[in-house]
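Need the bound structure for pyridoxal-5'-phosphate, inputs here:
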Amino acid sequence: MTHDSHRRPAERLALLKPSPIRAITDGTPPGAIPLGLGEPTWDLPEVGRQALLRPSGPCGYVPHAGLTELRKAVASFHGAHPDEVLITTGSQGALFALYQAWVDPGTKVLVPDPGFVAYPALARMAGAEPVPYRLTADCFRLDAEALLRVLEATSDVSAVILNLPSNPTGGGGDLASLKRVADACVARGILLISDEVYRDLHFGVRAPSLRDVTDRGVVTSSVSKGWGAPGLRVGWAVGDPAWLVPARTVHGYAVTGTATPAQWAALALIEHSDTVLAEARAAVQLRWEALAEALREELGHSVTPPDGTFYHFLPLPPATHADPLAFALKLRDEAKVVLIPGLAFGEGGRGHARLSFAATPEQLREGVRRLAPYWKA
Ligand SMILES: Cc1ncc(COP(=O)(O)O)c(C=O)c1O
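Answer from helper R.:
Posting the output first, comments after.
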């Protein structure tokens, strides 16, 4: 009995394509320098490692919303009440649960362009349509004017997504812009999600939080970036419980709860935020300095650090803008350096590539040295 030829994934997946990032990273040749990775390359902080080794007792389920102590710690970090916290499997788990809970088929979700690839993909999985809004032309920061123009012109908007500082651009935004967007979403009853996973990896001034302007939206974050622990898969949503309760139901049916030992470790990391985050910023600063020096010496670029993240949005030579994917594949296979073309994050990223400086200083110096001939050509 073979019905395989008739098998098709669910219709809601029809518009969902594998991440274009995979087209670059799959098939990376041996010896290539990975400047595409969006994850810390430094060790899991010792307090987190120790907490994974809890000596005795059962390793049981915890409430769907998360370990009580962890909810309290996350609440205190964000200046919220524990009832305003839902612990999830990475911040991606929080985004998934929120979209599934609040985004109806046929509605629209406003997403930054360029922006993190999951925002439009999760909209499509919910049967909705992602609608891009642009960032400022000079530094790829939040452009409230541009976002509000799209909001005014779009009907049936179910959610708006912000990401300060931004993957892939590193651009942040100011408090006044954030407030304008929050006020517009609150007035319309639209779910506003502010993805703040990179907020603590800043250079100088920390980007404002949505919590600074309203407690009626939802902030998502995780231990994956600043706390150096993407493999723990612990994230959270913080916001109005009215938004969180249906998301908690989705989260419960999807995964029951986040892995218990991972929550112990996340708790230890958050309890030591002062040192863990300061050390992470020092690690990122060191890497930025190595990258900036290499970019100056090898490419003649004079660069300033991003507002936050560990991404440099590297301008591509104009001749490559027509087919940035082909150029990225050429860099991968000939120069043996992996970069992610900005186009993977939306049309607004066409002229750039995302270079992750979470890599080691040696990898950064060698990587830029290998790239140089392609910029000079
Ligand atoms: C902007 C942004 N949001 C969310 C995530 C999801 O991360 P996690 O699920 O590990 O918290 C990432 C991961 O790269 C990201 O770059």
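Comments: Residues 38, 90-92, 116, 163, 167, 195, 197, 222, 224, 230, 235 surround pyridoxal-5'-phosphate (CB under 6 Å). The two ends are 58 Å apart (CA to CA).
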